[in-house]
Amino acid sequence: HLQVTRILIGDDGRLMIDFKTQTKFRGQYVISHPTLPGFESRVIAPLDVNTEFELALLWSPQTFDSPKQMWRATSTYNLKDYSGEYVIELIPCSVKPTQAYVFPGDGPLMCTAHQTERFTVPIAFQQTNRPVPVVYTLNTEFHLLNNEKVFMTDPNESNLLPQEMDYKGAFSRGQTIFGR
Fold first, then answer.
1. Whole-model pTM over 0.90
2. Dihedral sign (CA 172, 175, 4, 24)
């Protein structure tokens, strides 16, 4: 069972997909395992979405009995449109019915890996265009800034470079924004 819990754009503009899984077998999903060499859990983007994903297991309980695991997939590129059918392939790693969970430390989990399970996840997600500065009547300009130093300088008498004045990122929730 796989459920997407959150989709967001990180501060660097890359797509992040958080999801949780719950096994229907005794064991856990793993990123990779020595009993199945050459295979890795992964996220496959649609053909028309030109990016790859880094997959990370964020949290896993110390049990083999239907564990709920938390994952994050992060795109390797910043794109405008991420919409499409994604395939998430996870490696199931099963254990015997009587096997107790033993924390693996730095080694692999004591289990037997099997061919990947495929989950199809439809995603419709687009980044909005960067707002274009609006010039109001009387030649008044309105600026939104995330840098207090730039906010406190007089734009007419500033010796800041244009690159320092022009913010190219996205504002995030909870971030302080200055307007003038």
1. no
2. positive
- Per-residue pLDDT of 47-69, as tens digits, reads 888 889 999 999 999 999 999 99
Kindly provide the residue ranges of all beta strands, DSSP E only, lying in 76-141, ordered along the sequence: 84-94, 112-113, 117-123, 135-136, 140-141
pLDDT tens, residue by residue, 66-90: 999 999 999 998 888 889 999 999 9
Strand pairing partners for 99?
none
- CA atoms of 14 and 63, how far apart (whole Å): 32
Sign of the alpha-carbon torsion through 18, 21, 125, 85: positive
Please report the pLDDT score of residue 43 as a whole number.
96
In whole angstroms, what is the distance from residue 84 CA to residue 114 CA? Answer: 27
Q: Cα(10)–Cα(47) distance, rounded to whole angstroms?
A: 23
